Input
Amino acid sequence: MSVCEVCGNEIVPGSPVCGFCGSRQEGGPDSGRIPFRRKTVNLKYGRPTVETALRRLAVEIDIARSEGVSILLLIHGYGSGGKGGVIREECRRTLAEMRSAREINDFIPGDGGARSGPVKSLLRRYPRLRQDRELVAANPGITIVVL
Output
């Protein structure tokens, strides 16, 4: 199995271009890049209840960890009421508890985009993520989990 150097999604082994993000793959042990895998999980798919979304969150974090994923992008949505949804708030509350228990390294709300300090720090650590529009744009419907 091969993974994209930029987005961390699986690609066809030996492919020069990622089918997911379109980036050229340079690879090699001398590339000077911090190796990582990135994965996107859509927690709001199927309009789940809060309880179902939180169970899915825990399962997806376990799966990502077992797959060697470093950056997990959670899509939880903003909520249809215009003031932030319950799934979003409960996911972030659960992630704060997981961070306190050292089950995850950190999480970054997507509200500020690349302007926020935590995202800037993440981009310094993984410079190739600058090409990832989902991570650099302000989006209150996502949260970045650092495993």
